[in-house]
Write a structure and sequence with these properties.
mainly alpha, 4 helices
Length: about 110
């Protein structure tokens, strides 16, 4: 029950912050954005203290660990792979153009 109350408070805070952001349009955009970010931080903190929030935070931590394990390609590997993809796209485009031309010729020959 306490988790539901925390989540409801977090949602109400965010809704109020968004409503106030648009209501006080005569004030500086910088101040309104800072206020919105501050309330969003409070809402996220409050939501992270629930069961669902702690599960989401655990998922985010696990995701960061997995991202660190990824072996990213070097610049040379990226360039080479990109060139191979461009080459293959050109080859397939030429093949499709040839097939289209052949079929177009065949249809013209049959219909004339």
């Amino acid at each position: 029950m306490a988790d539901n109350i925390k989540l409801i408070i977090a949602v109400v805070l965010m809704a109020a912050a968004i409503a106030l952001f648009y209501t006080y349009s005569e004030y500086s955009t910088l101040l309104r954005v800072l206020g919105l970010l501050f309330v969003a931080g409070i809402s996220l903190f409050l939501a992270s203290k629930t069961t669902v929030g702690s599960t989401v935070m655990s998922y985010i931590r696990d995701t960061n660990v997995e991202v660190r394990k990824v072996v990213w390609p070097s610049r040379q590997e990226t360039v080479q792979t990109t060139l191979v993809v461009i080459l293959m796209v050109m080859i397939v485009a030429l093949m499709l153009w040839g097939i289209d031309s052949l079929l177009g010729w065949a249809v013209r020959a049959l219909t004339v």
